[in-house]
Amino acid sequence: MKPYIICHMVSSVDGKIDGAALSSVMADGEYEATGSKLKGDAWICGRTTMQQHFAQKKPFVSVSKKPAGPRPVFVAHRAKSYAISVDTLGKLRWSGGDLDGDHLICVVSEKAPEDYLDMLRQKGISYVVAGKSSVDLRKAVDQLGKYFGIRTLLLEGGGHINGAFLQAGLVDELSLLVVPGIDGRHDIAAVFDGLSQAKKKAVPLRLKSLERRRGDTLWLRYEVARSKRAQIRGLLPP
Ligand SMILES: NC(=O)c1ccc[n+]([C@@H]2O[C@H](COP(=O)([O-])OP(=O)(O)OC[C@H]3O[C@@H](n4cnc5c(N)ncnc54)[C@H](OP(=O)(O)O)[C@@H]3O)[C@@H](O)[C@H]2O)c1
Question: Exposed, middle or buried: residue 12 (CB in 10 Å: 0-12, 13-18, 19+)?
Fold first, then answer.
């Protein structure tokens, strides 16, 4: 049931992902043009990215403050393409179930308040509840495949949700646009961030393709190498 997951990102040559900083060195439309070649039927982002770019400014405030607990998947309707948020506690406020033409699905944990789920249902927004106190990403993506028919999922950042997907062994491919610029700031997220300090070895990748794009941008596509040897050496979960 698990969709094929491609992490699609833009970064500076030093691996930083602050979109505002990178826009000055990036050719317009390259992220979207390369992304459309990946033929995803859904895209997914972490709460911070959704808050910055897509959700309403003010967060949701629960009246009941009662955690929802385990709940069945709510399918408001099936669609050709989906936008998905990963929001552990149900903080993001949405105006409706459509995000730039994609049907919205909110992935939350059992700690999200029940009145948050009520609000989603009233607005025609689908949801998946997976994990007790944090989102169980493996369970969530299995449910996305099973209930919504998602086959190719584009993981579109930011760095911390990408890191969590990678650490869970869920990333199949990386599609990376390296733009001709250096960021260099310490506190800016990297393409994959927040992985456990205990993980001291790089996750091995295999180059699939390399293309020079407009404005001296490089489009790199890598497969995550899931060799038996990598698993035995503890580089990747089985
Ligand atoms: N260059 C690019 O291609 C690109 C693409 C996208 C974003 N960005 C940039 O990336 C920056 C934001 O990145 P970010 O790394 O700070 O945030 P992020 O990855 O967008 O979101 C992280 C948040 O997602 C939620 N989350 C839910 N389940 C999680 C899990 N299992 N593991 C980790 N997080 C989980 C957590 O918030 P809760 O605990 O509240 O749920 C967490 O704080 C922004 O500056 C944005 O513009 C760049």
Answer: buried
CATH fold of the domain at 1-40+151-238? Dihydrofolate Reductase, subunit A (3.40.430)
* 28 close to 179: Cβ distance less than 8 angstroms: no
**What's the whole-number mean pLDDT along residues 48-75?**
97
For ligand 1, atom 8, the nearest C-alpha belongs to 158
Residue ranges of domains in the chain: 1-40+151-238, 49-135
- Cα(156) to centroid of ligand 1, in Å? 9
pLDDT in tens, 87-108: 999 999 999 999 999 999 999 9
pTM higher than the cut 0.90: yes
3-state helix, strand, coil in the chain (%, to 5): 25, 25, 50
pLDDT of residue 230: 46
